Amino acid sequence: MTTYEEFIQQNEDRDGVRLTWNVWPSSRIEASRLVVPLACLYQPLKERPDLPPIQYEPVLCTRSNCRAILNPLCQVDYRAKLWVCNFCFQRNPFPPQYAAISEQHQPAELIPGFSTIEYTITRAPTMPPVFIFLVDTCMDEDELDALKDSLQMSLP
């Protein structure tokens, strides 16, 4: 990689995730000044043959209104067996099965190359799955009208 653009492109190609911005706005004022809205294009069926199968539950943030998942961008204190959520900054203890965690012995969630992980959950989910149907409306008015018409015809 020689440029920042190549770095971003390499990560997008690897993970199947593309964001409209490479940083989050740090305040409401910054967010209100965005010309292009903050958005994410995610490819949930992207093939990643280099990822190991993850056969255990994800480690979640303990704050009830956050519930973010442990990831390579979290701060980790290996001696205290704690991690800091990079969304809400909550300090979270590692579960007992992570007792042997160290800088040399990290779970897949903390390895930078595994920024996208697919978990295989073995227990029954507590909530039904959620599906989001998203339509990019940055198009000509004629195209948008045609899309609206096709959606109305396909609905029962």
TrEMBL record:
GO terms for molecular function: GTPase activator activity; zinc ion binding. Component of the coat protein complex II (COPII) which promotes the formation of transport vesicles from the endoplasmic reticulum (ER). The coat has two main functions, the physical deformation of the endoplasmic reticulum membrane into vesicles and the selection of cargo molecules. Pfam families: zf-Sec23_Sec24. Keywords: Cytoplasm, Cytoplasmic vesicle, Endoplasmic reticulum, ER-Golgi transport, Membrane, Metal-binding, Protein transport, Transport, Zinc. Residues 58-98 form the Zinc finger Sec23/Sec24-type domain. GO terms for biological process: chitin-based larval cuticle pattern formation; COPII-coated vesicle cargo loading; extracellular matrix constituent secretion; Golgi organization; intracellular protein transport; lumen formation, open tracheal system; positive regulation of dendrite morphogenesis; protein localization to cell surface. It comes from Drosophila simulans (Fruit fly). This is Protein transport protein SEC23. GO terms for cellular component: COPII vesicle coat; endoplasmic reticulum exit site; endoplasmic reticulum membrane; Golgi stack. Its main location: membrane. Belongs to the SEC23/SEC24 family. SEC23 subfamily. It comes from the Eukaryota. InterPro entries: Sec23, vWFA_dom_sf, Znf_Sec23_Sec24, Znf_Sec23_Sec24_sf. It is a peripheral membrane protein. It is found in: Cytoplasmic vesicle, COPII-coated vesicle membrane; Endoplasmic reticulum membrane.
